[in-house]
C-alpha cells in the first residue's frame, strides 16, 4: 500500500479524510466544517429559504465544475515549481453527506439501491476506494501525473442520461 508520509492532502469530505489517516499523510485538510455548515443553514432558514432535501444542488455542481477548472489552471501554474495538482471526482459514495441533505437513515438504503443502476459497475462506492485513489495521485507512483481529474465513480460520469 502506498504511503503518504510527509505529503499534504486536501479533502472536501470528512468521511474520506478519516480514511486517509491510515496512509499517514503529514496533514489532511478538509473543506467542510460542520459548525460552519450548520451556521450557514440556520442563517439561510432564518432568512426564509425553503428547506429542501437537495436544494443547492446547482451551486454544488457549479462548485465542482469550478474545482475541475482550478485543477488544470493550478497544475499549469505550479508545475514549474515541481508541484503536482490533481483532483478526484467521486460518484455516489456511502457516506453521511446524504443525511446532511435531509435524507433519513431509513431512506438511504433505497437511494443506494436506486443509484446502482446509474453506475456502470452496478453499485455505489465506499470511502476507502476514494481514499486509495487520492493516495495513488499523491504518491510517487503518480510522479508524472498533474492536472488530471480522476473519476472514482463506478462509471457514473460515462452513463448516458436518459
UniProtKB/TrEMBL annotation:
Q: Which Gene3D superfamilies match?
A: NAD(P)-binding Rossmann-like Domain (3.40.50.720)
Superkingdom of the organism of origin: Eukaryota
> Which residues fall in a coiled-coil region?
none
Keyword Oxidoreductase on this protein? Answer: yes
Matching entries from Pfam families are given as: adh_short_C2 (PF13561)
Keywords carried by this UniProt record: Oxidoreductase
Entry's InterPro entries?
Answer: NAD(P)-bd_dom_sf (IPR036291), Sc_DH/Rdtase_CS (IPR020904), SDR_fam (IPR002347)
Q: What is this protein called?
A: DNRE-like protein
What is the species of this protein?
Answer: Mya arenaria
